[in-house]
């Protein structure tokens, strides 16, 4: 993590479009310091992708070419806020909707079913809302690691 509160992950541009680029991130298994959450912050990204290759579309006006090494930085505070919204809000809405449905319906066999259905519907709606409103929340910063069009192992290694 850098002093400005961003976590970074290096990757390679695999496709360019008029509005942005697609970046491929390799699994981060060789840097034990990053995997422990120390160092540059790439371990945060690597946990998101769980040991597999991942690709991310990034909107940018930068003129990049396939094969260029880049790094993506996102605010750690925005990442925490988005994780809380994606995981926390549906749980809270599920509980509130289930409790509301259970208190509005007289006790009986349908009370539990209605509470479960209401909670599930509420949580689905909350998740849909968060996913639709998440655009621009992370505002990733894209930086070119090299002026060359081809990646070299020195540029993408971690220490």
Strand content: 15-25%
Indicate the low-confidence ranges by residue numbers.
Answer: 149-159
Strand order of the largest sheet: 3-2-1-4-5
Structural class by helix and strand composition: alpha+beta
Helix content: 40-55%
Total strands: 5
Tally of contiguous helical segments: 5
Q: Describe the biggest sheet?
A: 5 strands, antiparallel
Order of helices and strands: EEHHEEHHEH
General shape:
elongated
- Give the end-to-end Cα distance, rounded to a whole number of Å: 14 Å
Average pLDDT, rounded to a whole number, is 76
Which value, in Å, is the CA radius of gyration? 21 Å
Task: Please summarize what this structure is.
By secondary structure, this protein is α+β, with helices and mostly antiparallel strands. It contains five helices and five strands, in the order ββααββααβα.
